[in-house]
Structures are given as structure tokens and as C-alpha cells.
Automatic annotation (TrEMBL):
Cellular compartments annotated: Cell membrane
Full protein name: Monocopper oxidase-like protein SKU5
Membrane topology note: Lipid-anchor; GPI-anchor
Domain of life: Eukaryota
Length: 594
């Protein structure tokens, strides 16, 4: 039976009160966020277009929490289509229910509201969130996600004077529905119209390439300080080279792992990847400085418009930035430059991560591999008259009933546990084919890119170890080149065209986890699968129970209760704001009394 507006408001208020009161007594605090996801009109490249905003902001607000916090995000979907929010790189320990992808969650219908609740258990670092369905990331909806160290855990560098989030990505002046229609019609997206930096177009460094009236990003800094800048490629399909004129970028962290600290004049950041740099403002202030994100692994002379430019402004700056942009790497005929740069990114084995023990205390190189999968992608193919992308000859079809939900209620025929360990030799096929992972196993995955563009791959639920990459076809002998000591642990890695990348994954997180390309067009057309990891022990506690507010769809649609929250949320939000304020004071008093 449907709840009326007032009853829904009261229910939401009681949920917030209960969670907050429980957090007063919990060792790990709860932090609350309200997300209203809606359309607004913006003109980042000078052309008015519909973009997706969070709380009327484009990009959305940054989530800033601390290791082991319980994060509660109430998402209200004000779009005209269903929505899921994905927390890229957040491992969702024991709870793939909160991952926000179609293999684990039913989408949030328009005008509905759904609350995510998860713990950022034993994680630190730089991540981002975005809408994962219907190609919506191409219209925005993304924002930064920071997990700070607990005060008792030292960071491997002096405390920065500031923390700055920079979201970069290729951009089209068509919105996601138009781009989606092109893909559904068998067309390629073509060259992007530009690159955005924090949702804004390029500074007018060139009057031919950049028209008048473009709003650009300015980042203001004080001289003689050190800032931590967290850079995320939230774009669709373009690798970007990131650089700041006349400044070194001291790499410190990537996707939850502290790195060996090295200076770069620029770094290639591929789709879906995140990096932290330490930026020292040690230059003279005769003028402002360019911040640049330009297209890589393309014919850069033809892609000049695909360049984002922002401004680094010292508080004592004496003039505007002028002149040519700082050069990107001149390696058009040297395909090893970017790969060697990627190989130089190493794990800081002596630094503490989220726990007091050094990151390198996990000796991944001495663990026996239990399963090997070679995942090969290729250029798009036609299957049953449709343009599709594949992994090992399989183009993934999202089921109407999410995989994890089907397991919970023993629904048969939703998917097959038959994903091939080696690429199929026959014609490609469209299937809901899933990898059968072994709980507490150690899986080696070779990502072989037989396409002509860079592919980024992401796995939910895990940080994997990047142990090798090279050009050509991977063979058994390739293992002789693996880094078995300080390969970086991260959640998104690039695979160069005509090359392979090898990763190792310790399968200790029970659930159903998405393994996909981050290139949004290829992902949308089927270049993904899931890894299903089950603990068959009776009464085990390695996975949290299905959430009380789980949504139901597909063959379980009959279990979904009607919901009408359109009038209730306003009431609940205003009342819960007062309640949260009062209860926060109460928590503080309880803490003092304890």
C-alpha cells in the first residue's frame, strides 16, 4: 500500500533520526548527504545545452569523508528517466548492494528517492561519483569523492596547505540522449567538441579556437604554499594529458594508494582515472599560469579544439596568462613514451595506507594464482543487426533483474556463469555471461586491447595490482616481465591499442562486481562483464544482508511497493534539517559525557 506524503515525510525523518542517534554511540561516525539530481541549462562551450546537476551544481558537490565513516546519501531523482549513482573506486566492502550499477541494483525511477548507505572501510584517497545508466555521465552528474586518513595514521608527506579537486573530461554540445541515439543507430560519436575543467570551457588562449564569452575555471593559490590537487578524468572516451605551465606535479597518490613520489611535467590521465599531485607554488607572479588538459593518443593536429584550459592564479599575480600553451609530450612517433610513464608509477610500499601497517606488507607477488582470464576487446562488430562491443567475443546484455537480486531470490535464467577464460574462437554473441570468481582466490586478468584506441578498465569492489603492460599479444612468457614487488594497487588502468595490461586481484570481497571499460561508448555497447564471488559457508558474515529499502524490478517487480514521495521530500527535508542540527548537538553532548 502506498504511503501518503505526510507518512513518507515522517518515515524519512525517523530514518535520519535513527541513523544519527546510532552514530552518537558508534565507533565510526555517520555522515549525511542529500543529492537532488536534475537537469539545468548551461553553456560550458558557449552553446546552451541540458546538463545533469547535483543540488543545482555542475559538477556536483564534493563528498569529503574520513576512513571508516558510514556514508549516507539520499538521492532524489528529478530526471525524466531512471538513475543509478556509482561511487567509482569505493570498494563497498561486503555490500555490492550499494555499488550503483545495473548488475547489482534496480535503477531509481523518475521522481523517486533512494538512500545509499555504505562504509568507506579501510580506504583513503581520491575518487569520484557519477550516474552509471543511460549514458548519463556524458551530460554530467559527477563530482569528487575524498577519503581522508584518520588522524592517527600519518600521511607520507607534510600536510598540504589546501586541497583542490579538478574534474577534466571530453565534452559534446549534444546531450546524453542525443549521443545515445547516435550509438543506438550504429554511429560513432566522432570528435568531441571540447574539454571541460570543473564544468567550464577553455580560457581564450587562442581567438581562432576559442570563441568569446566562454566561462573558464580559475584556481586561486597563495605563493610559497603546497597544495594537494586531485585530478579525475570524468570524460567519455578521450585520454587527456594534464599539465600546469612552469610547475612540476609531484605524484603522491592514485585511487587509494600512495605512490613513490616522483615529479612529472605532465601526466597522461585516461578515462575514469584519478591522481593526487602535490603542487608547490614556487614560481614568480609576473602572470597567471595555464592549466591544460589536452587530447592524447589521437591525431593531435586535428584535435586541437579538444583542449581544456583553466587558470592558476597567484594572489599576487601581476597579469593574465598569455602566449602559447605549454607543450604536450612530442611523441607522435614514439608509442612507448606514455607506457613508460605509466610503468614508472609505483606503490609506496613503506607508507601506511588506511591502516597503520605499510602498504607493502601485503606481498602480492608471492601468492599463487588460482584463475587466469584473458579478456580481449576488438573494434565494434555487428551482432543480430546491432553495432556492439565485446569482451572475448561476448557482448554483455544487462538483465532486467539485477544479478545480485536474482541470486538473493533464487531467480533462474537471469545470467550464465560461463564467461570464457580465453577469447571465443567462433562468432561474437550477446549474452548475460558472468565470471565465476573463487572466494579467497587470486585471479590474474590479462586485458588485451586489439582496438585502435586506448581503453581504460575498471573493477568495482577492489583495488587490483598492476603488474605488467607491453605492446603485442600477451603470452605465457610475458609473466617474466611482471613487477611482483611494488606494482601500483588501483581500480582503473589503461590498455594501449595493440597492447596488453596484466592485473592481479585478491578475491576477498563477496558480492557481484562490475568489470568494464570506462570508455563510455564502448561500455554502453556491451564491453563489460561481472565477477560473482560467493562464500558458500553456512551462516557466514562476509556479506551484509539485502538493504531494507532495496528496489525491485524485472521478474521481481511484483515485490516493489508503490511510492509517492514527490510531495513528501520537501516536508521531510525541512524538518530533518532542524532535527539533524539538534541531534548533532546531542551527539556532541553525549561524546563529552562519555
Amino acid at each position: 500500500m502506498a504511503l501518503n506524503g505526510l507518512a513518507t515525510a515522517v518515515l524519512l525523518l525517523l530514518v535520519h533520526i535513527g541513523l544519527l542517534l546510532s552514530s552518537c554511540y558508534a565507533d565510526d561516525p555517520f555522515v549525511f548527504f542529500n543529492f537532488k539530481v536534475s537537469y539545468i541549462t548551461a553553456s560550458p562551450l558557449g552553446v546552451p545545452q541540458q546538463v545533469i546537476a547535483v543540488n543545482d551544481k555542475f559538477p556536483g558537490p564534493t563528498i569529503n569523508v574520513t576512513t571508516n565513516d558510514h556514508v549516507v546519501v539520499n538521492v532524489r531523482n528529478k530526471l525524466d528517466e531512471s538513475l543509478l549513482m556509482h561511487w567509482s573506486g569505493i570498494q563497498q566492502r561486503r555490500s555490492s548492494w550499494q555499488d550503483g550499477v545495473l548488475g547489482t541494483n534496480c535503477p531509481i525511477p523518475p521522481k523517486w528517492n533512494w538512500t545509499y548507505q555504505f562504509q568507506v572501510k579501510d580506504q583513503i584517497g581520491s575518487f569520484f561519483y557519477f550516474p552509471s545508466t543511460n549514458f548519463q555521465r556524458a551530460s554530467g552528474g559527477f563530482g569528487g569523492f575524498i577519503i581522508n586518513n584518520r588522524p592517527i595514521i600519518p600521511i607520507p608527506f607534510a600536510t598540504p596547505d589546501g586541497d583542490i579537486v579538478i574534474l577534466i573530461g571530453d565534452w559534446y554540445t549534444k546531450n546524453h540522449t542525443a549521443l545515445r541515439k547516435s550509438l543506438n543507430g550504429g554511429k560513432d560519436l566522432g570528435m568531441p567538441d571540447g574539454v571541460l575543467i570543473n564544468g567550464k570551457g577553455p580560457y581564450q588562449y587562442n581567438t581562432t579556437l576559442v570563441p568569446d564569452g566562454i566561462d573558464y575555471e580559475t584556481i586561486t593559490v597563495h605563493p610559497g604554499k603546497t597544495y594537494r590537487i586531485r585530478v579525475h578524468n570524468v570524460g567519455i572516451s578521450t585520454s587527456l594529458n594534464f599539465r600546469i605551465q612552469n610547475h612540476n606535479l609531484l605524484l603522491a597518490e592514485t585511487e587509494g594508494s600512495y605512490t613513490v613520489q616522483q615529479n612529472y611535467t605532465s601526466l597522461d590521465i585516461h578515462v575514469g582515472q584519478s591522481y593526487s599531485f602535490l603542487l608547490t607554488t614556487d614560481q614568480n607572479a609576473s602572470s597567471d599560469y595555464y592549466i591544460v588538459a589536452s587530447a592524447r593518443m589521437v591525431n593531435e593536429s586535428l584535435w586541437k579544439r579538444v583542449t581544456g584550459v583553466a587558470i592558476l592564479h597567484y594572489t599576487n599575480s601581476k597579469g593574465k596568462a598569455a602566449g602559447p600553451l605549454p607543450d604536450a609530450p612530442n611523441d607522435e612517433f614514439d608509442k612507448t613514451y606514455s607506457m613508460n610513464q605509466a610503468r614508472s608509477i609505483r606503490w609506496n610500499v613503506s607508507a601506511s595506507g588506511a591502516r597503520p601497517n605499510p602498504q607493502g606488507s601485503f606481498h602480492y607477488g608471492s601468492i599463487n594464482v588460482t584463475d587466469v582470464y584473458v579478456l580481449r576487446n576488438a573494434p565494434p562488430v555487428t551482432i543480430d543487426g546491432k553495432r556492439r562491443t565485446t569482451l572475448s567475443g561476448v557482448s554483455f546484455v544487462n538483465p532486467s533483474t539485477p544479478i545480485r537480486l536474482a541470486d538473493q531470490y533464487k531467480v533462474k535464467g537471469v545470467y550464465k556463469l560461463d564467461f570464457p577464460k580465453k577469447p571465443l574462437t567462433g562468432p561474437p554473441k550477446m549474452e548475460t555471461s558472468v565470471i565465476n570468481g573463487t572466494y579467497r582466490g587470486f585471479m590474474e586478468v590479462i586485458l588485451q586491447n586489439n582496438d585502435t584506441k586506448v581503453q581504460s578498465y575498471h573493477m568495482s569492489g577492489y583495488a587490483f595490482f598492476v603488474v605488467g603492460m607491453d605492446y603485442g599479444e600477451w603470452t605465457e612468457n610475458s609473466r617474466g616481465t611482471y613487477n611482483k614487488w611494488d606494482g601500483i594497487a588501483r581500480s582503473t588502468i589503461q590498455v594501449y591499442p595493440g597492447a596488453w595490461t596484466s592485473i592481479l586481484i585478491s578475491l576477498d570481497n563477496v558480492g557481484v562486481w562490475n568489470l568494464r571499460t570506462e570508455n563510455l561508448d564502448s561500455w554502453y555497447l556491451g564491453q563489460e562483464t561481472y565477477v560473482r564471488i560467493i562464500n558458500s559457508e553456512v551462516n557466514n558474515k562476509t556479506e551484509l544482508p539485502i538493504p531494507d529499502n532495496a528496489l525491485y524490478c524485472g521478474s521481481l517487480s511484483h515485490m516493489q511497493k508503490p511510492e509517492d514521495i514527490s510531495s513528501a521530500i520537501t516536508i521531510a527535508t525541512s524538518r530533518s534539517t532542524v532535527a539533524v542540527t539538534l541531534l548533532t548537538i546531542l551527539c556532541a553532548l553525549i561524546s563529552v559525557s562519555r
